[in-house]
Design goal:
337 residues; alpha/beta; TIM Barrel; eight-stranded parallel β-barrel
């Protein structure tokens, strides 16, 4: 018994030692690279509506005031095909056309799960019938790609958003069906790369990365959970360098970008229920710049920011333009090629 206990203590000590060494390694400081980098945003007209700001006004300001040239846009299935077989392209047509006018590059996110809560946006008529939902989703992917594949603005197709992360109000995930979605996208347009994304902190990346032409990671530094409250992830840029090495070795994936870098506050509830001061406590110009530097230190030179709608909301609703102006300054110095 004593011998077994001794071995247990030794093994436990070795494990704790490895954990400590790992945490020390991933938190070793890294210098910010001097090389140029590209910066973009994710934009959701739906979130603009939730913030009670004009979605077209916000989009135009992103293009003309911030001069953003790289934008990721969710394609909301429940809006476009609210009635089975009938398509309403009004919002997406506008976004693509305005991007074309300004030579901007778009990533269109297609699937049942796309950016913004509740993550999955499935038409009511497809919610309760799994077979029908899957059949119609493949058709929807074809419809979207065929409509916009001749657009000079569309650069990348993203299929689903963080599909391997069990987060959001979504039906069960099927790897086999997801592979069908990717195959459908490739068959419909073989000229553009497929982007697949995963959680920066909560996933291994390998299943997503090995299916992608481009892999995209999220990156959230200051978060809130009911269990732990507000906290900062205890990882440094080397954590992401290590994960990039993993997908290089185990998924033969060398093309990785930050698709969702935190640029808005993560609050304990609806953001707009908090005061301007409380919101700025959790995201401000200094934190925004620091987050971009963090992503660059992680080895990424293509970075899409999350929260542009909130920047504009703070500007027009609260008269607080500090975050918007900080973003403008950064976009003025990036390539966005």
């Amino acid at each position: 018994m004593k011998k077994a206990l001794k071995y247990f203590v030794i093994i436990f000590g070795v494990i704790i030692g490895f954990v400590i060494l790992f945490l020390l390694y991933i938190n070793i400081p890294v210098k910010t690279p001097a090389e140029p980098f590209d910066l973009g945003v994710t934009y959701s007209w739906r979130y603009s509506d939730e913030l009670n700001i004009d979605w077209q006004e916000v989009y135009t300001a992103i293009l003309d005031d911030l001069n953003v040239k790289k934008i990721r846009i969710p394609v909301y299935w429940d809006h476009i095909e609210a009635v089975e077989g009938q398509y309403n392209w009004d919002h997406l047509d506008y976004e693509v056309a305005e991007a074309e006018k300004r030579n901007a590059q778009l990533i269109l996110v297609i699937g049942r799960k796309v950016p913004r809560w509740p993550e999955c946006f499935i038409p009511e008529w497809a919610v309760d019938d799994t077979d029908k939902r899957r059949e119609r989703l493949l058709i929807f992917i074809e419809e979207v790609i065929n409509r916009y594949k001749d657009s000079s603005a569309v650069a990348i197709w993203q299929i689903e958003n963080e599909p391997f992360l069990g987060y959001g109000d979504c039906p069960p995930f099927s790897v086999e069906f997801f592979d069908q979605e990717v195959a459908t996208a490739r068959a419909t347009d073989s000229t553009r790369p497929i982007l697949i994304t995963d959680s920066g902190e909560l996933s291994l990346w390998i299943p997503a990365a090995k299916r992608a032409d481009i892999f995209g990671t999220t990156m959230y530094r200051n978060v809130y959970t009911q269990k732990y409250g507000y906290y900062e992830y205890p990882v440094g840029p080397r954590f992401f360098q290590l994960k990039r090495w993993m997908i290089d070795v185990f998924a033969d994936q060398k093309n990785a970008i930050v698709i969702e870098l935190q640029g808005e506050p993560w609050m304990a509830g609806t953001t707009t229920d908090f005061s301007k001061e409380q919101q700025l406590e959790h995201m401000n110009p200094e934190q925004l710049v620091e987050n971009v530097n963090f992503a660059r230190q992680g080895g990424f030179d293509d970075i899409y920011l999350w929260g542009v709608e909130w920047w504009y909301y703070m500007k027009v609703t609260h008269g607080e333009d500090s975050v918007w102006e900080a973003a403008r300054a950064m976009f003025a110095t990036t390539n966005q090629d």
